[in-house]
Write a structure and sequence with these properties.
This is TspO and MBR related proteins. There is one protein chain. This protein has one domain. Helix content is about 70%, strand content about 0%. The longest helix has about 35 residues.
């Protein structure tokens, strides 16, 4: 299964690169009539936000290669995780192709399925680690960023799809504020439930922060949206840190 993981993740990453338009063709921001561009809805992050995918893909590649090591092969945690990791990579690639074919509603279904798979992965990561710092970085770090970013992206994707379908109310500033607040609340709840993992909170805060940046100009320029998104980003990260510290203190052995 370790070799299958390497081949599967490599194939999925290659498909994702092709689907993103990085090797030619239509970029995601320009596909589907620009529905997912940085200026399409009040919840759309600035284009720079998507640079997080470089880190996630690099982490997935390193994670897959690490599966070939004796430590990973002997890990029950990794054995359970591998099929879900492969599935997440292929769902991500599939999402990119749905956008390229202008199938926005299908893209929502796929990204929700991807989010569900990543939630399952985060649950699996609650099992004891045996690979030390390397496993912490390559597994918990990579999939934590992956989950946190997809959580934010699910809101942006759904908002864009509904807006493109003619629900113009979602393009109003008040509902934009509501969308950002709801995304922040969901991310905060996730941080509380997962014991304050920093990587997911960091990725979601990254997305929210770039929503704030995008709202400093363009079609949906709004100080209200800027400050709401910036505050949501800060609160999500703060809650994760506080929760992490609380859990660490609780698990600390008594003197």
């Amino acid at each position: 299964m370790a070799i299958i993981t390497v081949l599967g993740v490599a194939a999925a990453i290659a498909m994702a690169v092709i689907g993103s338009g990085a090797l030619g063709g239509t970029a995601v921001a320009e596909a589907a009539g620009g529905a997912l561009s940085a200026d399409a809805t009040p919840l759309a992050p600035a284009g720079t936000a998507f640079s997080i995918w470089s880190v996630i893909y690099a982490g997935l590649a390193a994670y897959a290669l690490w599966q070939l090591t004796p430590t990973a092969r002997a890990s029950e945690r990794q054995r359970v995780l591998r099929p879900w990791a492969i599935l997440s990579a292929f769902l991500n690639a599939g999402w990119l192709f749905t956008v390229q074919f202008d199938a926005l509603w299908l893209s929502v279904i796929v990204i929700v399925a991807l989010l569900a798979v990543l939630i399952r992965i985060m649950y699996i990561l609650g099992r004891p680690r045996t690979g030390g710092v390397i496993e912490l970085i390559l597994t918990d770090g990579t999939f934590g960023l992956y989950f946190g970013w997809v959580l934010a992206a699910t809101f942006a994707n759904t908002w864009a799809t509904l807006s493109a379908a003619g629900v113009t109310a979602l393009e109003e500033i008040p509902l934009g504020v509501v969308g950002i607040v709801v995304a922040g609340v969901v991310a905060a709840v996730a941080a509380l439930l997962d014991g304050g993992r920093i990587a997911p909170a960091l990725a979601t805060s990254w997305g929210l922060a770039w929503i704030a940046v995008a709202r400093t100009g363009g079609r949906f320029e709004s100080d209200t949206l800027v400050w709401t998104a910036a505050a949501a980003a800060a609160v999500v990260l703060l809650i994760a840190v506080v929760r992490r510290v609380t859990v660490a203190r609780t698990n600390q052995p008594a003197a």
